[in-house]
Amino acid sequence: MSSTSGPAIRIRDLRIHYPDRALPAIDGATAAIAAGETVVITGPSGCGKSTLCRAIGGFIPELIPARVGGEIAVDGQSVWDMDSARIAQRVGTIQQDPDAQICTLRVEREVAFGPENLCLPAQEVAARVDECLDAVGIDHLRHRETTDLSGGEKQRLAIASILAMRPEILLLDEPTANLDPDGAKGLFDLLGRLRAERRMTLVVVEHRIRPLRSMAPRLLVLDRGRFVTRHARGWIDPRDLGARAGAPAREAPSDKRLLRVDRLTFGYDTALFRGLSFDLRRGEIVGLIGPNGGGKTTLLRLIAGLATPDDGRIELDPGARTGFVFQHPHHQIFERTVTAELRIDGPERSTGEFDRWLAAGRLERLGDAAPLSLSLGEQRRLTLLTALRREPDLLLLDEPFIGQDRRNVEWIVTTIRAHCAAGGGVLLVSHDVALVEALADRLLYLDREPRFGPTREVFAALRAAARTPFLPEFWEGET
Amino acid sequence: MIRRPAPSPDAGLRAAGPAANLLLLGGLVGSAFASPSLIVRGVAFGAVLLLAGWSGVGVSRFLRSLRFVLLFSAILFVAQALSVREGAALLDGFLRVTDLGLRSGAGITLRFLVVLASSLLFVSVTDPDRLAGTLIQAGVPYRYGYLLILALRFVPFFQRELRIVREAQRVRGLAVSVRSPAGIRRAVRYTFLPVLVSGLMRVDSIALSMKGRCFGLHRRRTAPSAGRLRLADGAAVGCVALLAALSILAAQEGWA
Q1: Cross-chain Cβ contact B164/A331 below 8 Å
Q2: I need a labelling partner for B78 at 20 to 30 A (CA). Which of A242, A261, A468, B30 fits?
């Protein structure tokens, strides 16, 4: 609990401006968070949520250079006057990617890492390790190598290793962004328990708010660098896509089969799937959901010919081509300029062709820009454009909506629908089950017992099997 | 594509402390250099294979990992055997092979094999976390000790990133060859840069994570406990003692 009677965190007229950006990331934000309170900070991508987390955690400007103004005080003390390591004993920060915050090679050592840095006696370190592993429910994993853990287990480990520092405030920056629905639900349950048992101040940056409702959080909406009371919704409601509740948004898929997967078997240590069969028709979007490690990306790699099945067949319509858009755009960016990036997929076939492509991707003034200097949304549009430029019949999309704001999601949806309308097909991997429900004609749920069929029927089967985190209604709702 | 499961962390030398494994490595390498006897070197190489099997590495898999070393060893043996002209001739013609040449080739080859195989065994069975802890306890500044752990944390990361980037190249139809200067330039741009970008992003996150847990706050930090001695520690020390005894015996008896 906080040691003072004032707010645990006070933010007053905060301004943060990164040196390489034209506009400030935070522009006059003011808020107060009481000790023991649970606050959810939400808002569109790029509105400054992560910047705010890093500033409260003391990483800006000490580790991340930026011009700062205004004030952030933790327990009445300005973070600008404290070393980030000192702040860390009051504020524990959990980052988006659980894998990127693990420093050691074994679970037990990871939890001990912080207390050892505090020079605590070895017995005290051991006691904290035991307590924190138990608190997050991964005591059985204590001797495992950190590289062997699932995404959900890694996020629990990250929380345990922060709890071992005994912070009063827990700051979580989109902690479910890289988790499957099962892992995300488990994390939300854990946060609820920690709040009840430890009365910690919880600040959670999150797009998906409904599962947090049981904790009765106060909602703070950040928009263009400041907290707002009335806001234009910056994220997408699947109902806006007009494909639900019997509102047909586009023509039904044709009967011409584009892809047939027949009794496919593949695995590493154990078989990921055995005898998997499904098909995809021209004009159709097939959604692909399931837990992390279930083989979704591997299935896309097999279809793209990047891996060889152990058994079974993958048949594409003769002459059909695939285009593959990876989860992280920077993996598919190779050239120095945006135009040169388009040129990889072939020379300009007609005058102004590249300009038309750039205009289609809302990148018209960025032809000479370095692709890696673009925003995440612009990079995503560019990688989708380069895939489309190869004129694929089948588009394989791996989590295209992660980290994308409303405008980008709408652009991606419009683009893939246009691709289907032109006779192409889309196999779409996404953890956003509500969006998948709105978009997919048929659904493949990939787990130990795969299910394939019309979207409604697969969700009905998952409902009957009580796979709650994979149901759209678990995530949907007013925010 | 079905791979065998990872060995138990308690199998054989994996259960031994880093100090015991370091001593064993020193003993094996020392015997290969200190004793001129082929028998001692042969026993040392045999011991490495047995210990690899005992530690769950698998002798055939271990030998597969050493296939380039074995190939180079064979070349080394042939080159040495042919270059020594002294001794009784076993083959005398266009090529001259002598008994001394064969012995010299076998000696150098076995020494080379013992050094590399024991080093591979050490890397395969030693927990880097515990090794770093041992180094820190031995007086190495903890920032340097953690460099080792972080470097090892990045090995699987870079392997994965490299695979993804190569697959991205295939998807985009990019042929990357290093057979010409232009090809090397393309390889650097198309492979090295994307992997570097991923690496830098990862370094940023890990730096925040370490700073967020007070790394570097004090000059010293609590050292992890060394752990109790186990049978595997005794086995490693016993193995070194046996090799030392064998080396002394070989010297006294004048074994070749």
Answers
A1: yes
A2: B30
How far apart are the C-alpha atoms of A436 and A332, rounded to whole Å?
Answer: 24
Residue pair B54/B13 in contact by the 8 Å Cβ criterion:
yes
* Domain parsing of chain B, residue ranges: 12-126+230-253, 140-211
Check for a shared fold between A9-234 and A239-321+392-475.
yes
Residues 6 or more apart whose Cβ sits within 8 Å of residue A256: A281, A282, A317
User: For A56, what's the count of Cα atoms within 13 Å in the CB-facing half-sphere?
Assistant: 33
Contact A430/B at CB under 8 A: no
Dig out the tokens for A234 from the structure. Answer: 């910056």
**Could you give the CA distance from residue B157 to residue A147 in angstroms, rounded to a whole number?**
9
Q: Has residue A426 got a pLDDT over 50?
A: yes
**E strands, A43-79, where?**
67-74, 77-78
The tens digit of pLDDT for each residue in B152-204 reads 778 888 888 899 999 999 998 887 777 788 888 888 888 888 888 888 888 88
Chain centroid, CA A443 distance in Å = 21
Residue whose pair of structure tokens reads 């950040």 in the numeric block = A222
Q: Does position A242 have pLDDT exceeding 80, yes or no?
A: no
Give residue A230's pLDDT band: very low, low, confident or very high (50, 70, 90): low
Calculate the average pLDDT of chain A: 86
Q: Order the strands of the A285-289 sheet from edge to edge.
A: A322-325, A394-398, A425-429, A285-289, A442-445, A451-454
Query: B123 touching A, CB under 8 A?
Result: no
Helix, strand and coil percent figures for chain A, each rounded to 5:
35, 25, 40
Is pLDDT above 70 for A235? no
Distance CA A31, CA B250 (A): 80
Q: Do B212 and A266 touch (CB under 8 A)?
A: no
A-B CB pairs within 8 A amount to 166
Class of domain A9-234 (CATH, top level): alpha beta
Q: In the structure encoding, which two tokens stand for residue B256, read together? A: 């070749």
The torsion angle over the Cα atoms of residues A100, A298, A388 and A345, rounded to 10 degrees, is 80
Domain A239-321+392-475 belongs to what topology? Rossmann fold (3.40.50)
Q: What is the pLDDT of residue A133?
A: 92
Could you report the predicted ipTM of this complex, rounded to two decimals?
Answer: 0.80
Burial call B76-86: b when 16+ CB within 10 Å, e when fewer = bbeebbeebee
Separation between Cα atoms, residue A41 and residue A163, nearest integer Å: 21
Left if phi > 0, otherwise alpha if psi is -120 to 50, otherwise beta: which for A19? alpha
The answer to whether residues B9 and A143 touch, using CB atoms and an 8 Å cutoff, is: yes
* A50–B contact, CB cutoff 8 A: no
Respond yes or no on whether the N-terminal peptide bond of residue A253 is cis (omega within 30° of 0): no
Is B2–A109 a contact, with Cβ atoms under 8 angstroms apart? Answer: no
Residue A12, pLDDT score: 95
**Separation of alpha carbons A70 and A105, rounded Å:** 40
Tell me how far apart the terminal alpha carbons of chain A are, to the nearest angstrom.
28
State whether residue B217 sits within 8 Å of chain A by CB: yes
E strand or H helix that includes residue A219 = strand A218-223
- Is the model's pLDDT at A45 over the cut of 80? no
Q: Is A330 within 8 Å of chain B by CB?
A: yes
For chain A, give every domain's residue range.
Answer: 9-234, 239-321+392-475
